[in-house]
Amino acid sequence: MASTNLCLLSQNTTKILNFSLPKLTPPIPKPNFLSVTSFPSSFPRFLWSKVATFKSSKRLSCRSASTIPVSTKDYEFSDGSSEVELRLQLNVDVQNSRDIFVDSNDTSLTIRVQRNGYLITLIETNNLFGKIKPAETIWYIDDDQLVINLKKQDPDLKWPDIVESWESLTMASTQLLQGTSIYIVGDSTEINQKVAGELAVGLGYTPLSTKELLETYTKQNIDSWVLTEGSDSVAEAEGAILESLSSHVRAVVATLGGQQGAARRADKWQHLYAGFTVWLSHTEATDEDSAKEEARRQMQDARLGYSNADVVVKLQGWDTDHTKSVAQASLSALKQLVLSDKKLPGTHLAI
């Protein structure tokens, strides 16, 4: 079953929608090392979480993230393989251990302290970096620190931090991706390039653009090429570029959008299977059900090359200020994909 991530992006809100999608067998077989198990015909349960945009700063902040900003967080974190330890500085006077409330679930953690009849939230997140075993959560007070031990469900997954964020995802990329290249596909060449560039900077990968490579080689821009020779000619040339890039590692490749793009054509995907593919797809959907239905139709359309992508990020509108949030949604989706099928490249989680 293919794990898919949808990011619904609008002026005021962004929603990251996580669910699994059935996939049809691609017209060109994938290499064995990239094979995915068979998919059921039924459409699985749809899971989602919200991300809010703050108009004043135009920055995206996960509403489920820690209430302590990353830049000013007042805690220490360590990963001990089978468990993680969080040491939280108690900046309030705790008279009794019964004044501390620790609540945990598979992917959430809430810590509150009661003081003068009021509950003070020290940390609250439902976006832990990985899943835990909540029944085995242990906490105690050590001098002026609250120590919380969380047992990991997957001891092979190294946690860079307590919460999933852009910083922790990029730090974990070495163990998750193992140098596997990423291909960004979708109908907007400009968006593909911007998101690919953001990912490359965060991951320490080489940013590559098939548009720039084609224009450098042919000494003409893509638009004039399409006018003079047609979109088929451009798609063929991009296919040759993708073939030459298929042996590259540690690269983020932005592909051409539109009809002239090779990735839009189902018969041009042979060399895109050399790495992970992220489809940046525009949508008018504003709710869970309509987004799920749209994704189902698209991923079952074998004529559309994009339906072969490993993960999907849905965009409702576009603003360059959101580039990093889309890049983060892409990494989060790839992380889920890797953890769901450890036979994929980049899934040997060596500690």
Automatic annotation (TrEMBL):
What do the Gene Ontology cellular component annotations say?
Answer: cytosol
Q: This protein's superkingdom?
A: Eukaryota
* Biological-process GO terms, alphabetical: response to stress
Q: Which InterPro entries match?
A: CS_dom, HSP20-like_chaperone, P-loop_NTPase, Shikimate/glucono_kinase
Q: Where is the CS domain?
A: 70-163
Q: What family does this chain come from, according to its entry?
A: Belongs to the shikimate kinase family.
Tell me the protein's name. CS domain-containing protein
Look up and give the organism this protein is from: Carpinus fangiana
